[in-house]
Amino acid sequence: MSSASFTLTEEQFLCGICLEVFTDPVTLPCGHNFCQNCIVRHWDSSTQCQCPSCKFPFYKRLDLRVNTFISEMAAQFRESAGRSSSDHQAAKAGDVPCDVCTDGKRRAVKSCLVCLASYCDTHLQPHLKAAPLKRHQLTDPMENLERRMCAVHDKPLELFCKTDQICVCMLCPVLDHKSHKVIPLKEEFEKKKAELRKIEAEIHRMILERRLKILEIKHTAKLSKEAADRQLADGVQVFTALIRSLERTHAELIRTIEAMQKATEKQAEGFVRELDQEISDLIRKRSEVEQLSRSKDHLHFLQSFASLNASAPSTNWQEVRVEPPSLEGTVRTAVDQLEETLGKEMKKLFLEAELNRLQVFAVDVTLDPDTAHRALILSDDCKQVHHSVVKKNLPEDPKRFNPSCCILGKQSFSSGKFYFEAQVKEKTRWTIGVAKASIKRNGIIPLCPDNGHWTIWLKNGEEFAALVGSPLPLSLSSKPQKVGVFVDFEEGVVSFYDVDAAALIYSFTGCSFTERLHPFFSPGLYNDGVNSAPLIISSVVLRDLLKR
Q1: What pLDDT score does 83 carry?
Q2: Phi, psi of 123 (to 5 degrees)
């Protein structure tokens, strides 16, 4: 390359990081150039591997090689500009020093694998210009070049002994490694390089595996916190309701005792008033007696004496008693009643809390028109269904129920937990539950677990039953207005709840689910308008235990 004239400016040879003329320039795939050490340090201090100038990302650390063309241009530019680079190329801690420099070691920019020496920019020039030296193999600066020489024969280590797994020189196979399998360093390098790629891939897999594990652990911790928060909320609601019940019972006990005491006080006050009146009457009579005792008129005495006896008080106060209220055992009785009330209250509260927890698994269910019997009428949003005496003219479909007036939910589930609710207000007949996707749709098929159905029904407005083979009668304290259905696929449980009363109606347990489950409904026959109300898939609203 001719150095006769330069039309390039210094700015074109400045590194964008250190703002000095390039030293060991490297070119990134995006086209920008930087000093090798500058870009390496920049990436070491950054979490991302990208170009500092254009921010172009690289998905792995690049194996950078010095751009010899730009390096030569930069070196000649420094020479032509009379620039001394000794001030910014002085060897520092961690740098490889130039082996030729005698007065102030400068940082080496290349090492020669033939000369086994390292050179700074100035002392490297012969290797860049002299034809014999140009054939030498230059590499990035290296320390301990003597390690590249055979300690026994003082020859370059150019071969690899597979038997002893060490690097050897050309004389070693002849003298010290006879009959050993020896191959060129490059061959072993390529093999080990391939192994290294496998190791790198395995490390990458392990990193990915551990990152996924971190996500799994964080997700589990999140679910645990959500469960703990729900438990805390349930606990606050339950104990707040119990405290209110205690406060009500306490207030009632106070009112009862105070009422009994006031009744006793009122009775005593009545007796006292009556006695005071009789005392006044007796004092007056005593005065009359005293006056009469002083009378000497025989006729007047006898006439007055008779009237005096007639007006004498007749109450026998010896038999009159003010009975104190019997408070003995009042507190004990109140506590016993409270215990009974709290038992019922707690059972209901726990059921409400359980229902709240189940409602977390609520799913959006819509009715599947393709499975509906011809006499069933669906709303536009497929959330309501009722029976009609007129059958629609629909094409034959193996998925459609006939002659049973049933319909399936469009959604199906094959794992986990799910919950939905159906409003049955004002209905005198209905069937609700879940069924296997493969249940028979044609013919009269008894609803039972053996046939793939887990359902309950209402008949004749008051007969509730779980369909376990033959209907199992259920005794309910009130007629449900809304029925909740909860399924735990893995545990094999199907439970039915009276949502408004927060009461468990019935549970199928020990079920074995081997395929997808669909919500199952039957609104019951029209029955001359008696059962005209629709069965409605309702939105799930979490209960508030504090509103009691």
Answers
A1: 45
A2: -80, -5
- Does residue 304 sit in the same domain as residue 384? no
- Please identify, among 67, 83, 99, the residue that sits at the C-terminal boundary of a domain: 83
CATH of the domain at 47: 3.30.40.10
Among 185-189, 326-330, 491-495, 514-518, which stretch is predicted with the lowest mean pLDDT? 326-330
Whether residue 436 is found in the same domain as residue 496: yes
pTM for the structure as a whole: 0.49
Domain that holds residue 50: 8-83
| Sign of the dihedral defined by the CA atoms of residues 307, 308, 311, 317, in that order | negative
Gap between the Cα atoms of 203 and 207, Å rounded: 6
Least Cα distance to 517 among 439, 422, 401 occurs for 439
Cα-to-chain-centroid distance, residue 25: 51
Between 185-293 and 330-359, two packed helices, what is the crossing angle to 10 degrees?
A: 150
**How far is Cα 43 from Cα 62, in angstroms, rounded to an integer?**
10
Q: Contact, 504 vs 493, CB < 8 A?
A: no
**Is there a single domain that holds both residue 335 and residue 483?**
no
Residues 220 and 349 in one domain: yes
Q: Are 325 and 265 in contact (CB under 8 A)?
A: no
Decide if 157 is inside a domain: no
What CA–CA distance (Å, rounded) separates 26 from 71?
A: 9
| Residue after which a domain boundary falls, among 83, 112, 142 | 83
User: Do residues 516 and 363 touch, judged by C-beta distance below 8 A?
Assistant: no
pLDDT digits (tens, 9 = 90+) for 516-534: 999 999 999 999 999 999 9
> Where does 156-291 show beta strands of DSSP type E?
159-161, 166-168, 182-184
Residue-wise pLDDT tens digits, 339-355: 777 777 777 777 777 88
Displacement of CA 348 from its chain's centroid (Å):
27
CB distance 342 to 242 below 8 Å: yes
In the predicted structure, residue 310 carries a pLDDT above the cut 70? no
Helix (H, G, I), strand (E, B) or coil at 211: helix
Cβ–Cβ under 8 Å, residues 405 and 469: no
Q: How far apart are CA 426 and CA 65, in angstroms?
A: 83
> Is 288 a member of any domain?
yes
CA–CA distance, 326 with 320 (Å, rounded to integer):
18
The CA distance from 311 to 427, in Å, is 77
How is the beta sheet containing 471-474 ordered, strand by strand? 407-408, 517-522, 430-436, 453-459, 463-467, 471-474
Residue 292 corresponds to which tokens in the numbers above? Answer: 């009469």
Whether residues 415 and 528 share a domain: the answer is yes
431 forms bridges with which residues in the sheet?
457, 522
Q: State what percent of residues in the chain have pLDDT above 90.
A: 34
Structural domains counted in the chain: 3
pLDDT in tens, 418-428: 999 999 999 99
Q: Is 26 part of a structural domain of the chain?
A: yes
Does 256 lie in the same domain as 226? yes
In a domain, 147, yes or no: no
353 & 377 share domain = no
User: What is the rounded (10 degree) CA torsion for 189, 192, 196, 199?
Assistant: 180
